[in-house]
What does this fold into?
Amino acid sequence: VLANQKAKCANSFVLRKNPTVEEFLLCLTVRHGFPYQPSALAFDPVQKILAIGTQTGALRLFGRPGVECYCQHDSGAAVIQLQFLINEGALVSALADDTLHLWNLRQKRPAILHSLKFNRERITFCHLPFQSKWLYVGTERGNIHIVNVESFTLSGYVIMWNKAIELSSKSHPGPIVHISDNPMDEGKLLIGFESGTVVLWDLKSKKADYRYTHDEAIHSVAWHHEGKQFICSHSDGTLTIWNVKSPTKPFQTITPHGKQLKDGKKPEPCKPILKVEYKTTRAGEPFIILSGGLSYDTVGRRPCLTVMHGKSTAVLEMDYSIVDFLTLCETPYPNDFQEPYAVVVLLEKDLVLIDLAQNGYPIFENPYPLTIHESPVTCCEYFADCPVDLIPALYSVGARQKRQGYSKKEWPISGGNWGLITQSYPEIIITGHADGSIKFWDASAITLQVLYKLKTAKVFEKSRNKDDRPNTDIVDEDPYAIQIISWCPESRMLCIAGVSAHVIIYRFSKQEVTTEVIPMLEVRLLYEINDVESPDGDQVPPLPTPGTGSNPQSIVPQSHPSTSSIKNSPLKQSPGYQIELVIQLVWVSGEPPQQITSLAVNSAYGLVVFGNCNGIAMVDYLQKTVLLNLGTIELYGSNDPYRREPRSPRKTRQPSGGMLTVASCMCGLSNLYSESVKKLRTSYISKSSHVSIHFMLKNKKENLYSVNPCILPFFLINTDLFSDVKDNSFSRSRSSSVTSIDKETREAISALHFCETFTRKSDTSPSPCLWVGTTLGTVLVIVLNLPPGGEQRLLQPVIVSPSGTILRLKGAILRMAFLDTTGSLVPPAHEPWREHNVAEDKDEKDKSKKRRPVSVSPSSSQEISENQYAVICSEKQAKVISLPSQNCIYKQNITETSFVLRGDIVSLNNSICLACFCANGHIMTFSLPSLRPLLDVYYLPLTNMRIARTFCFTNNGQALYLVSPTEIQRLTYSQETCENLQEMLGELFTPVETPEAPNRGFFKGLFGGGAQSLDREELFGESASGKASRSLAQHIPGPGGIEGVKGAASGVVGELARARLALDERGQKLGELEEKTAAMLYSADSFSKHAHEMMLKYKDKKWYQF
It folds into this structure.
């Protein structure tokens, strides 16, 4: 029989194209968001490209809005400094593992051309003069080495610390903290040592011209553009300005934030000034810009950037600590008036641009999507191929939320060019956050832009003080954190579940409304396991009946108020998402409500359903009534495979109009929580908790990850995961009573799916129903009997009844979907969106009465035939079940040793497939309905709960997850998208003419003034300085190689690039030769050494003395 059904199924799917293995390929596309843990900053003033390096070795490059790029150093070492080869399309990165890397930016995916690994010295500071190929590298020992950036080899020219400082000095001057050449004389190098010594070194004569000593440690140094003065920032909060030719004492000492004492004493010391920049203008006073330096008595004051301009000092407070800042100037030439126009400030968690040209120094509006982490992300959903009118609708309501007071100027980081748009379908990402906010993002064509922000916490009263807060030991600082998002793009209905066991249903409107009373239902969803003594055992609270809602007074015990109190004052609701109904699970018998594990909303039926580890509740949000409130065990009725019974059955049960509406007075599973877990009930997963569970897969010794026990998602509740765990941390974090309860009593609702399908084997036509999946692998079907549309829908009750259908899989149920006989996905019924806040005219009312929800048409055939196929995915396996016969025609065991974290049924190239992400790091896809494996790639082992909480697949081969607390990583499993990706990526490098050098003027040229140039090749080249010691640093050819430059050289950058290409090819060939001749070189060195000794021995002897 099964073979016949498979044959029938195969024949029916001939109409539809079957997916092939060749259509699937996994690759990363783009990374969005703020660079996590930033550590370095650089700007190319000609190309107008910004680069940010991070503590994890990542490199993010930003051009004009929409042009972004992510690269990664393989070592993962922190980036300590970045230096652009200005207008050359290249970048040097210095890492904490003492390596230098040369990045080629002339290709869409930048690659490393060369690397240089220092073996004996630690890199502390680098400086690359404008239009120079010689990079100065300062080290912890106080020495300076010089690297040729074209060949990435060391020069034999070295500035040793003991030559730079005075011979009389007995102490080491400390690491190099600054290197720069005099703007007016490239032959003079200013070297700053940490201890406070600054040296002006003459490169030609190889000796120090001047030495400047100061008692306080130096953090940074900056030149005046005329090269006659420089400024140092110190650890005591002072700035010292020095005249180059007066090394004995500073020309001026400034303490920007020091209190001036009356008796002429030195100001009190302040915090260190970490960086200073000195920028001049033609028309006015110079700018001195600094970070740090606040006085020690400003406790609790936020980090500041100070802008000193003439006699005015502006202190600009920042939200986070300052990592680095750069002043953007009109000219790349250091020997010209700088004309600063903006300051880029890299903060720990933000990027701020300050407009120096306008009064008050306003900030620029940041066009990059860097606010993903504004509040920590707790969940996200991804929707590709949305209705085309959705993004404009969200944008129009979101545009009203924009802040005012930004700079009127264009965003100054404007380099690069956009890629070609080869994807035409709309994509939306929704992120839920710890503060209860929800953000909608336009993610079309590998870009990201925020559309609209919804604050769900607005519905709740904010606690004025701690006395107002009920049970402060339990209520967490993030009581509104979003856990689950259910969204219907077609009807625009939105439903969220929060960490405090609340559900809010929203309807989209373009009109502003004021809601006098927020509609609210309170639900008791707790199932009786133990005998609980009641003060009055015979008294049963009244049942909620359709149309009347739930009476809070009869439900909520006075001693245990609901977790969050709803506002009782009128609420003004702006255009966008507006509250339709708030549902709050309440305390029962002294126990807080369990967190919601699954959620679904259906606009055609007007229903929302949610479940947790105690049971399931269904609410009619149109009539504002509870339709269903059952413990999970009661869903089975007499068909329970575990033969469980409530240990304290209810004394009375009162039916209500034939419905399954159950008394809401279920008593608590009071011994399920230990005190420590209670305190952490709502804690947000990214925050450190004192209670953790270390759990592992079966037969695995290593811990997978730690997670707060009270917010384990349903796929982690399954006790199979814990069966081999002997770790004490598990037993400590859960009460001892948990282990004594058999696993069946902790069956949670893990998946919910509204659909119009066959509910029983005997059905001849599909009908509206709800499919319920549990953590024990059971699927149950609930039949929905809906009243007619229009006014009748608001007057007649929805009848909910069990179908008796039970299906079983191995592992918790994750996802369910339905296919028709052609293999097309049957979407849940939905109502098209319409404006609810505008009065309908008579014709519209008549239409709405007749309106049928968009859904599957019933079968006209009276005979029973296979009309639909249910696709069910669990943590362990997937099944395709034919309906209405309920025969399993295909089965696939997805994983034996691991478990599926996320499974989605998605469309790709006109075919439907199942996409899965496993905890062992594998991404897999299967054809439907045959469940044939199409893709299995080891990609990302589950290292933390953030990945599990945010990973999601969507249509057209797209997927994403939160790769760090601040960044979204997007990937594709579509071969077509992988092939088109190169075209879609933006260009970082664009050919731009370098500005002309400043004019020296007639008198300066005549009398020798102006900038003095230096032939560095003559000084640092091999012929003049010899070869550097090979043991000092090791050259490593980069993976970018010559091919990357060849791509850039084709017709875009002309002869210069071709000449550089020839040099690089020559250098690469020489590098290969160098390896082959290493032994010969060693032999030659040995011979040279002996010859030198012989020469010294016989140097003074006459020919006749030999």
About this structure: The chain has 19 helices and 61 strands. The radius of gyration is 35 Å. The first strand starts at residue 24 and ends at 33.
